[in-house]
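sorry for the late reply, my laptop died twice this morning and i had to redo everyting from scratch. anyway the thing you sent over, i finally got around to it. pasting the sequence first so we're on the same page, its 100 residues, then the predicted structure underneath. double check i copied it right bc i was rushing
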Amino acid sequence: MQAPVIPSRPEPHQQLEHTSRLMLAAAQRSDWSEVRRLEGVAQGQVAALRLQAPRPAPAGPAERQARQRALLAVLRHDAQVRALAEPVIDRVTQGRPQLH
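ok and here's the structure:
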């Protein structure tokens, strides 16, 4: 009889990537309330990663590559969310006095 396989908990980098993917999907639906909510989730995940900063280096090249892929995906998702949000922000702020 084999021992049951216990799924491993996703790495913090992968959790952040998942959240950024959800943010992009919400932005594509123009669900800005959900984008804002997920932004708060992502901020918490980034804070948790910063607390782990002194954490040992990845165990090997595969883990290092997985972290790098996850962080690059987060950056791509962020750029796409910003591209979708900028026209909305411009429309909302049009005609309002700019604060300097």
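Residues 12-52+61-93 form a domain with the Methane Monooxygenase Hydroxylase; Chain G, domain 1 fold (CATH 1.20.58).
thats about all i looked at so far, will dig more tmrw
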